[in-house]
Design brief:
This protein is α+β, with helices and mostly antiparallel strands. Strand 3 and strand 4 form a beta hairpin. The two termini are 25 Å apart.
């Protein structure tokens, strides 16, 4: 999971080590998502890493393009 924040309101949760937090904003992390104008995140392609993203490419590179292709095909087949 890649997120801007993980909140444990109970104080009893265990945060798994495969969760990665990056500040308080998605700006600059993903190519098609902008907190500044509230756009993006509606299409699988929005989740490609932005140039210079602080998310390590190794976290997403092995499976990202395959996942985008499957999601795109599924969305195109079932419609919105």
């Amino acid at each position: 999971n890649v997120t801007t924040m993980i909140e444990d309101s109970s104080g009893k949760a265990t945060i798994a080590p495969d969760n990665f937090t990056f500040g308080t904003s998605l700006n600059g992390l993903f190519a098609g998502i902008s907190d500044a104008d509230g756009t993006g995140g509606d299409e699988p392609e929005d989740y490609r890493l932005a140039p210079g993203s602080s998310v390590p490419a190794a976290l997403v590179a092995p499976w990202l393009e395959d996942t985008i292709a499957v999601l795109r095909a599924t969305l195109d087949e079932v419609g919105r």
